[in-house]
Design brief:
alpha/beta, six-stranded mixed beta sheet, 21 helices, globular, Immunoglobulin-like, 17% strand, Rossmann fold, single chain, four-stranded mixed beta sheet
Length: 786
Amino acid sequence: MDAREIISQLTLMEKAALLSGKNEWESRDIPRLGIQSITFSDGPHGLRRQEGAGDHLGLNASLPATCFPTAATVANSWDPSIGEEIGAALGEEAVAQNVDVLLGPGLNMKRSPLCGRNFEYFSEDPILAGKMAASYVRGIQSKHVYSCPKHFAVNSREYRRMAMNAVVDERTLREIYLTAFEIAVKEGGAKTIMSAYNEVNGKYANENEHLLVDILRNEWGFDGIVVTDWGASNDHVEGVRCQSNVEMPNPGLDSARELIKAATEGEGRITEEEIDRAILPIIEAAIYFKENDHTKGFDKEAHHAIAKKAVINSAVLLKNDEDILPLKAGTTVCLRGPFVDKPRYQGSGSSQVNSTKVETIREQISNYDLKVVDDPEKADVVLFFFGLDEIAESEGADRMSMDVPEYQIKELESLTVYNKHIIGVMSAGSSVKMPWLDKLQALLHGYLTGQAGASAMLDLLTGKEIPTGKLSESYPFAFADCSVANYSDTEKRNLQYREGPFIGYRYYDTADVAVQFPFGFGLSYTTFEYSKLYVGEEGVKFTIKNVGDRDGAEIAQLYVGKEESGLIRPKKELKGFKKVWIKAGESVEIEIPFDDKTFRYFSTVSNKWEIEGGEYQIYIGSNVSDIELKGLITKAGTIEELPYDIETLPSYKTGKVRNVHYEEFEKLYGNPLPEEKVGELDINDALCQMKDAKSGLCRLVYKILKSKLDQSYEKGVPDLNIMFIYNMPFRAMSKMTAGAVSRDMAESIVTVANGHFFKGLGGIISGYFKNARENKKYEERLSHKE
């Protein structure tokens, strides 16, 4: 039977049940019609298929899998072929471990360097992020597994992510926060998308008709599965109406009953035809996955080699005074820093992998022609392995600062007393402050390297391999320099994106704000010269010559700007790139084509993509600040009417957006800005907001949660369970308790929090028995073979 024929034989109860998960990692099955469960698994950079009872926070053991470098690392390769190779390996491991949908890659924009999950995301630029994500998707799906880019959309912080409203103007939404997803869908062919926890302009992402229907389905042509982030569903009926397909992880059958009631009791909220439409991609996927052979394993050593190759192509050489690197054969080295014996190679949270093996510097260095001594005074150089601790970067919490831990910097400073030749080897998933940079003669940044990082970094340090990576994000001198520094109030529900499109290099470059390292920056052991730029209607051509004495790779970057414009525009924006290997002394002609995104902007007048007519500047550079070649091209406009008078938006005209006034942002936003909610707690408020609850019991619960959270920070080990619960809204209790808590019960818990103890307790008790009774009845009907 095909999918539509199967749907015609389903009862309404079965249909409703199919739209929610049956446990932590599986969708529901309908055995009587041969509909199998779809198995999901975390896996942006390595599979986390759990044994036994599942939990989405990674508290229970998972099967061994290859831990590849994180997205933040691989983005520095600027090489989609590497992403596709990693994706194919991930797909192989998914099939081997009976996984149908791999939950990744993550491609939210790095709006702020303090986002605790930046290590899972590719870039601050949507073109680079989108191209890299599309490559992962192609690789994963080449193995008959669905890839699930996440989190759609505007999920750019962790704190209160489930109880936060992203307030962003339409053009910024389209051009900055949705473009990467568009590329992943159109160029990668993604068959699954994960909806985010947060609201976008007042509507939860999972029930946001503008996001899910107007844009994802109708504009981009997506015909696959939308799955909620785990616990991200709010109004299930509205979600299904907006073609969200699977509510995860396991809300029990309360949600299904809501659907049936909405479809049958004259509420007019949803029709059975709309339910059928939402079921179709699920049935199609279940049929598709039946063909997979799960008896094959995977080649652990081959995948370890891919992980190593990815690091070699992604690590970034940030400093190399007096060409101290590469180290010469026989160099005497002293190993120092916290990551010599215990590497920091992956992030914390739902992406944490039980690696097949993990290399360490201490073990690997014996394979190299280096002499290791314990005394830094007796060493030619000190290799200092340092960076961000695990507690600094984790799902569920944002970073408190951009600082590297103080104890590490104190150790670095103490080493300078004994030896001035110190080479830093850094591990971190996002940008950090570097006031200590002058203490290092060289700095090689591996980001989070995955399980094969030690040998890869030693290959680069000794010159066996050559550094070719470039930064996929800017490194400001301090958080105060960021465009979002004044728009990051963690206590407010409405997170205003007042900076508009000016995030990352778009801000620093336009507003002339100095940075430690610019977007696209990276050194090598060789050098390149650019020449002979030709700008045509289809794209650009130019020549790069390797003028050094080593073969190497250069990442050429195409930026486009428009100096004379009636629109808000960054000085220049990345529109294409190419990584090319060039032998010493040789020249290569490079071509970078224009595409549909090169000159477009989103018009809020026509509500579609348009081109502003006039002259455009073409920039070819080795990074956003080092422009080697410039050209011009004139484009015909597609529309004359502009959405505003640019003179009435002075901050946005200059790009100096760190202190945008409320009224100016409201003018850009185009609607009255939402006000902060006051008064009693509601079901969409987070548990951390019980700090001010009327109920003394709830305030006590808050204090206990906060105490446990503080203790985890003091220990330096993130308590993922506490982090999640602390930020979780009341509604999530009805979505993540395997059916033990209904929506009505969650509402009664809120009633208790608001000081009505006995009324709320009565609702909880009566709701518990009613819910259990209704769940049992529903399960019996589902198991009955009709």
